[in-house]
Amino acid sequence: MNRPTLWMEAPSEPDTVESLSRRVAKLERINASLMAHVERTMDQQGGAYSLFQTAIMLEGRVRSRTEELTALMHSLERSNEALQAAKEEAETANRSKTRFLAAASHDLLQPLNAARLSLSALTDLAKGPEAQTIARQVERGLETIEDLIKALIDISKLDAGVVRPVIKPVRLIDLVAGIEASFRPFAERKELRLVTRCDDLAVETDGLLMQRILQNLVSNAIRYTERGGILIAARRRGGEAGKTCRIDVVDTGRGIAEHERALVFEEFYRGGREGEDGGVGLGLGLSIVQRMASTLGHDIALHSRTGHGTRMSLDLPIASQRPDAQVRLAPLATTLTGARVMVVENDASTAEALQRLLRNWDAEVRTFADLAGVVTALGEGLGRPDVMVIDYHLDHGACGFDVVDYLRRNRGWVTPVILTTADHSTDIERHARSHGAELVHKPIKPAQLRSLLAYMLA
Q1: If you count Cβ atoms within 10 Å of the first and of the last residue's Cβ in the chain, which end, N or C, has fewer?
Q2: Other CB atoms closer than 10 Å to residue 11's CB: what's the count?
Q3: Could you give the domains of the chain?
Q4: What is the pLDDT at residue 49?
């Protein structure tokens, strides 16, 4: 019987040298394969360890960098907080400066107002050319001080952003005509021609600020022009369908050198240029012009040729509708003889100077410091005045319109009112319009006051 087997055995090969060689080669291949596998395993274990070490090292670096960045962020936050605090402090200081200048402007201009009024009365009494010359020199000095104070206050208000323009349609031809009438005597004094060419256009702007801009530009042009003339031109750009208007103020003066053109808009830069009578300007006019133009959103450009002249240009949008028509009454020529004028002024020197000036014009004048004085005089039989000249800011926070309201309410007196103030705020302008009062800014110009009184009394 054959012996059972669990598997089939391969037929045995005789142990020959050849067969042994083959078996040894096979074992060597197996051994090499096993060794390669072990080496790969060791390499993988070594790489993992290396990666582990690298990860630990990178984690430390990341932690260190994170701590540095965190510290830097905290430092930056503290710096930002300090900068914000400094910014708020600067803005608060700027607002305080503006409030101070606005409040102080009344006190700063009051003595100038009294001096101007007294000087005008003195000029009326002065005899001889020498006295007139001295009076004119004093008046010019007072005008310079007044202009400087007003310019500094304007710049402060513009920088603080407290000037808020009231944009509405403005008839340009009326604005230019007013500028021409104001500056023609100054141009004629220097034997210069002042010419205007203006299309009948309505533009979108703030009439008061635009008037100030043109006043500064024309004043500069006259000051720095020795011969020839000044042209104020306004025309629509782009034909009948154009949406903008160009206003040019052109002079035939000495021009502005190229290296000065970027500097003329800076405060107090005058470039050593002398104006009329060898004097120089304050160097603030163009700085104020640029600030006002920026506030209004109007582009301003300068073109100049040395020895030939300068052109200042403004671009304004054309208004979509015409402004309301205004009825203008020509002032009638009349004297102030016998006119009853009530003056309410808390500054004693200004009240005295104003009283003296009005009496020199043959008016009958009563002066009061406040409402209480007026009430007392009413009890003593004070009659109704023909016109009232009232200061806006009275003592203890009182307002000049308190007097007006009292007389209208208790006596039914609807008397013409001239409001005087050194404050140029739009709130006061609105207050004056609501009371139907004529507004005159201090320092009061005597010729302006006399003309206005004659007009109102007529």
Answers
A1: N
A2: 5
A3: 167-317 (3.30.565.10)
A4: 57
